[in-house]
Amino acid sequence: MQNRIQELRKQNRVTQSELADAVEVTRQTIISLEGGRYNASLLLAHKIAQYFGMTIEEIFVFDLEEEDLC
Amino acid sequence: MLINTLLIGTKTAKTDKEYKVILEGKIKLWYLLGLIGVITIIIGSILEVGVYNYQSSFFGGFYIGFGVALLLVVTRKIVVTKKILKSDVKIRQTRLKMQDERRIMIAQKALVMTATILIAFLYIGMVVVGFMANVMMFWAIWSIIMMFFLVYIIVRIYYEKKL
Fold first, then answer.
1. Contacts with A43 from chain B: Cβ below 8 Å
2. What's the average pLDDT block by block, 10 residues per block, for chain B (163 residues)?
3. Within a 10 A sphere around the Cβ of A15, how many other Cβ atoms?
4. Which residues are bridge partners to A61 per DSSP?
5. pLDDT value, residue B1
6. Is A3 left (phi over 0), alpha (psi -120 to 50) or beta?
7. Which ipTM value was assigned to this complex?
C-alpha cells in the first residue's frame, strides 16, 4: 500500500520525530511507513489522517491490484 | 522486547497513567522471576552439596549459575523500571517505544518464526536420536513436540472464542 506521508510531512514542515510523537509511535515506524515497508494499522492510519486533517483515503492509496482484490 | 512480549503479551495502555500501572505490575513479575532465581540457586546448592547421582555436581553448578544469571537480569530490570517510574517523560518515551505497533508486530513474527524453526530442529533431533537407539531422548523430544501442539490448540481455541 502506498501512502503520501512523506509528501504531506514535508509540505507541513514536520519532522519524522514530531509526527512519530504526535501519533504515538517510534520514528523508525514512520521511516518504515514512508519507505513502504510497513502498512499502518487502522488505528495508526486514523491518527495520521487526523494529524494532517485529512481522510485515510487521501493519505493511503489502496491499490486493488497490489492487494490482489480485483 | 522478547521477555516483555512473553511476560505482558500485547497488553496496551492508552495513557501514561495506565502504562505506569503496567510498569508497576511488571516490577512484581520481575520479583517473582527473582524468587524463581533464588529457588534455582537453592536447588543447585542442594545438588552440589549432596551426591544424589554421579552428575549431581554438574547439575548443581549449572542451576546455581543459571539462578545467579537470572537474579542479575532481574535486578537490572527492576532498577531500570524504577528509574523510569520516577520520570513522566521517561514513562511516555518507554510507552511509545514498547507499544509501538511495528515493534510488537516484529516481536510476534519473530516468535512465530522461532517456534517454527524450533519444531523443525526438534523433529530432526527426534529422527537422529532414532539412529542412536536412545529411547529416553526420543520420548523427551516427542513429548516436547506434542506439548507444543497441544498448547497451540488450546491457545488457538481460546483466541477463537475471545476475538
1. 101
2. 57 85 93 96 88 78 95 96 94 92 94 96 93 90 96 96 92
3. 12
4. A2
5. 57
6. beta
7. 0.85
Give the gyration radius of chain A's Cα atoms.
12
Q: Which three cell numbers stand for residue B112?
A: 512465530
Cα separation, B53 vs A24, whole angstroms: 56
* CA nearest to B105 within chain A: A38
CA distances (Å), origin A16, targets A34, A56, A57, B32, B34: 10, 19, 21, 39, 39
Please report the beta strands in A1-70, taking only residues with DSSP state E, as ranges in sequence order.
2-3, 60-61
Counted residue by residue, chain A has a size of 70
Residue A29 pLDDT greater than 90, yes or no: yes
Residues on chain A touching B105 (C-beta within 8 angstroms): 38
CA atoms within 13 A on the CB side of B120: 6
